[in-house]
Write a structure and sequence with these properties.
Number of domains: 1
Strand content: under 5%
Number of helices: 8
CATH topology: Globin-like
CATH superfamily: Globins
CATH class: Mainly Alpha
Shape: globular
Helix content: 55-70%
Length: 187
């Protein structure tokens, strides 16, 4: 398989860069906003995902929709390349099963991206999804690899449309979504 990344960047480097992004002050502020709000808070607080971020993610996902089957294939190829130990969690031996899994992935992503316009409705869906993934033997650490695979897939699928702003928006959105899922499932 041809890598979309420069030869001097290894898969571990990509994952480590993504991990650093997950640990930024933005993440702490997002979780503070998501999980620490009280009814008595009267100060205007920044939304966990702002309108510009939402628009960048939603608009760029429109470009992914026409190539959804290819995007799903790229995603799982990258996921298994970054962490081959994840392969047994998926139906890779059954003919046609990974195409079906890819369809589920793209449907879930489309729903989640559309749901960015109404986070109050999206958060319980993500919490439920996080809890269900525990039964699939998904571990906290897997979310980092999934995030890196998602960003790599978007870069490959969107090409020049995967601008630094779009990458930052997707990173922020995935960080929030993964955080909500992890919080619901493991904490």
């Amino acid at each position: 398989m041809v890598s979309i990344f420069p030869k001097n960047i290894t898969n571990n480097t990509i994952i480590n860069q993504f991990l650093r992004t997950l640990k930024t002050k933005i993440m702490l502020k997002i979780f503070k906003n998501l999980f620490s709000k009280s009814e008595s808070d009267t100060a205007v607080e920044e939304a966990p995902i702002d309108l510009i971020t939402t628009k960048l993610v939603q608009d760029s996902f429109e470009l992914v929709k026409p190539i959804a089957p290819a995007a799903a294939e790229i995603f799982y190829t990258k996921l298994f390349e970054y962490d081959p130990k994840l392969k047994p969690l998926f139906p890779t031996q059954k003919e046609g099963a990974m195409a079906e899994q890819g369809n589920k992935l793209m449907t879930m992503l489309a729903s989640a991206v559309a749901g960015l316009s109404d986070l109050d409705k999206l958060i319980p869906v993500l919490q439920d999804l996080g809890k269900r993934h525990v039964a699939y033997k998904v571990e906290k650490s897997h979310y980092d690899t999934v995030g890196a695979a998602l960003l790599g897939t978007l870069e490959a699928g969107l090409g020049k449309a995967f601008t630094p702003e779009v990458k930052e928006a997707w990173t922020k959105v995935y960080t929030v979504m993964a955080g909500v899922m992890i919080e619901a499932a493991y904490e």
